[in-house]
Design goal:
The chain is mainly beta. 9% of the residues lie in helices and 32% in strands. Residues 80-95, 103-113 and 146-159 have low confidence and may be disordered.
Length: 328
């Protein structure tokens, strides 16, 4: 029998007395079973209802896609799944966010080969859906071999050499601390100590600004010796960075400068469509950078701006007129 005959309408399927025309009939989906609607998500509610699905937002369009095995394992570290049995078919349900652990097992956070486990605790609840990722550019300048370095005339500063660990690679540690929420996230970037300057990218998590009007967070970075890296924030509508305090404010309005998950944040930084042979970095989507230049001078402002104190009721200020004096 030829292939065309096997696909004829009256050809036998080999399953009871059914033929090909029976397999193409709509009777199965109209009278025997039907499909549930596909899972959906939004920017405000990035939940697909299953640990095997994640919500991806691209150009204001949110849709559910499959998670990788690594992403499922990461999800299981933060959630416990439960299922409810219905009359038709079992449907997985997501348990409520777990409470933050009262005691966290200390993890060494001083070497590149010993990662730190974040618990995604925000305002007392552990829920990974409450966090988004922002890209952070790290510029690392290799320290000189000398131990002494003059910062100002007459004020020599001394710091110990950072011994131990791999001399070829090192880590820059980044941390976000919530200013209008209770939450901390830690991450590190790998840098190469064999070359003069290394540029790396880290992805740090902060509270999802879609939950409220905005997110306020303070970002900090330190080099392997504990020296504070200098923050620089992006000037709006340009690719220029200016010194700043490291405090950022995020909203759900465009441009967002964040991704709803780690993969989305990475894709926001790299452009694979303009030139597929050589992906380009989209610097306009990186909000903040840190310059780790081994300096130890204090770059944060130390003087408070003058405060205008309120005057008592009925008090009037008399300004002198040029050429005249006020009578006593």
């Amino acid at each position: 029998m030829e292939a065309a005959e096997l696909h004829a309408p009256d050809a036998a399927l080999g399953f009871v007395e059914m033929t090909v025309i029976d397999g193409l009939s709509n009777t199965f989906t109209s009278q025997i079973y039907d499909y549930d609607p596909p899972p959906t998500c939004t920017v405000q509610n990035p939940d697909c209802g299953s640990k095997y699905l994640k919500c991806v937002v691209f150009r204001d369009n949110a849709h559910c896609v499959s998670r990788t095995i690594a992403e499922v394992l990461e999800w299981e570290n933060n959630y416990s799944m439960s299922s409810t049995v219905a009359q038709t078919s079992p449907k997985p349900t997501i348990s409520p966010p777990a409470a933050c652990p009262t005691s966290i097992t200390p993890h060494p956070y001083n070497e590149h080969d010993k990662p730190y486990q974040n618990h995604y605790c925000l305002n007392g609840r552990s829920d990974i859906r409450q966090w988004v990722y922002i890209p952070v550019k790290i510029i690392f300048r290799r320290p000189p071999d000398n131990v002494y370095q003059h910062l100002k005339n007459g004020y020599p500063a001394k710091y110990e050499k950072c011994a131990g660990g791999d001399k070829r690679i090192s880590s820059v540690y980044i941390k976000s601390v919530g200013l209008n929420y209770d939450g901390v996230y830690k991450e590190y970037a790998i840098v190469d100590r064999r070359i003069a300057i290394t540029v790396s990218t880290a992805y740090i998590a902060v509270k999802n600004p879609a939950m409220e009007k905005s997110t306020l967070a303070l970002l900090q970075a330190t080099d392997p010796c504990g020296r504070v890296c200098r923050p620089a924030c992006k000037v709006p509508n340009s690719n220029i960075y200016r010194p700043c305090s490291g405090a950022v404010r995020l909203t759900s309005a465009l441009p967002r400068y964040y991704g709803t998950d780690f993969g989305n944040a990475v894709m926001d930084v790299w452009d694979f469509t303009t030139d597929k042979a050589c992906p380009q970095v989209k610097h306009e989507n990186i909000l903040i950078a840190f310059n780790c230049d081994f300096q130890t001078d204090w770059f944060w402002p130390t003087q408070q701006p003058p405060v205008n104190r309120p005057l008592p009721p009925g008090h009037k200020i008399h300004k002198p007129v040029r050429g005249y004096r006020l009578a006593k």
